[in-house]
């Protein structure tokens, strides 16, 4: 049985969470938080790689980030299911792992699976706190935030991931079947995410949001509502001088 976690990064496909918030997950792991990863599908409909290969890559990527748990569900890559059975399966994972902080896909994105995953995760995080839903002990995460994937949004906050950027890159390098790796010949089918341009775009976006927050690299997040701040003094260094 997997131990509980403090933070859970959730993606529709293996590599989604690492691409969107890998630097933040590594930062939290480095700070002593127990970090877990949950992939809602096996990536079986992808153009490159097999489900078995992507599972091995996801496990290696989780190790690189410092995660203590990595789990997989089977909700159907390419047509992610969001029915009662999927809700119950996700509820079970949330109640067993009991994360306080959850990162997941944004409400709208280029890949339809991402938007479906957002709604499913948001609903499950709420239902997980209902005592009369299911037989397991209820648990509702303290906060659920969305990371950025293909489509942009106006972020609610940006995390400075300068200190863990190289860790994130190492985690992405574990996805050998999916992502371009500098200095390595690519013999697989041509896809957007396997191109050098996509790799550069990931860095460019991080540099853009880092600049907005006064750092070298940043990861943007979306909150459903306003964020409460206990000590405004801590905000003094969050903008450019």
Describe this structure in words.
The chain has 241 residues and is an alpha/beta fold. It has one domain: LmbE-like (Rossmann fold), CATH 3.40.50. It has 6 helices and 7 strands. Strands 3-2-1-4-5-7-6 form a 7-stranded mixed beta sheet, with helices on both faces. Strand 4, helix 4 and strand 5 form a beta-alpha-beta unit. Helix 1 runs parallel beside helix 2. The protein is globular, with a radius of gyration of 17 Å. The chain starts with 6 loop residues before the first strand and ends in an 18-residue tail after the last strand. The model has no long low-confidence stretch (mean pLDDT 90).
Taking all residues together, what is the mean pLDDT? 90
Major sheet details? 7 strands, mixed
Order of helical and strand elements? EHEHEHEHEEHHE
Structural class: alpha/beta
State the CATH class: Alpha Beta
Count of DSSP H/I helices: 6
Write out the CATH superfamily name: LmbE-like
Given the C-alpha coordinates, what overall shape results?
globular
Q: Helix share of residues?
A: 25-40%
| Largest sheet: spatial strand order | 3-2-1-4-5-7-6
N-C termini distance: 49 Å
Unreliably modeled segments: none
CATH 2nd-level architecture: 3-Layer(aba) Sandwich
Cα-atom Rg, whole angstroms?
Answer: 17 Å
CATH topology grouping: Rossmann fold
Strand content: 5-15%
Total number of β-strand segments? 7
Q: How many structural domains are formed by the residues? A: 1
């Amino acid at each position: 049985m997997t131990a509980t976690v403090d933070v859970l990064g959730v993606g529709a496909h293996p590599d989604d969470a690492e691409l969107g918030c890998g630097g933040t997950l590594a930062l939290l792991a480095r700070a002593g938080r127990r970090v877990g990863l949950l992939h809602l599908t096996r990536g079986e409909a992808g153009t490159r790689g097999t489900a078995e290969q992507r599972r091995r890559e996801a496990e290696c990527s989780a190790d690189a980030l410092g995660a203590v748990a990595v789990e997989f569900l089977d909700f159907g890559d390419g047509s992610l299911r969001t029915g009662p059975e999927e809700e119950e399966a996700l509820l079970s994972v949330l109640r067993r792992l009991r994360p306080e902080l959850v990162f997941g896909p944004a409400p709208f994105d280029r890949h339809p699976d991402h938007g479906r995953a957002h709604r499913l995760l948001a609903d499950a995080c709420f239902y997980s706190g209902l005592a009369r839903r299911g037989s397991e002990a209820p648990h509702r995460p303290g906060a659920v935030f969305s990371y950025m994937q293909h489509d942009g949004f106006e972020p609610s906050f940006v995390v400075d991931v300068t200190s863990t950027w190289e860790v994130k890159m190492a985690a992405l390098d574990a996805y050998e079947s999916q992502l371009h790796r500098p200095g390595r010949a690519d013999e697989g089918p041509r896809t957007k995410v396997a191109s050098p341009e996509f790799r550069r775009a990931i860095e460019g976006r991080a540099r853009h949001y880092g600049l907005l927050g006064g750092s070298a690299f940043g990861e943007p997040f979306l909150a459903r509502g306003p964020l409460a701040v206990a000590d405004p003094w801590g905000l003094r260094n969050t903008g450019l001088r």
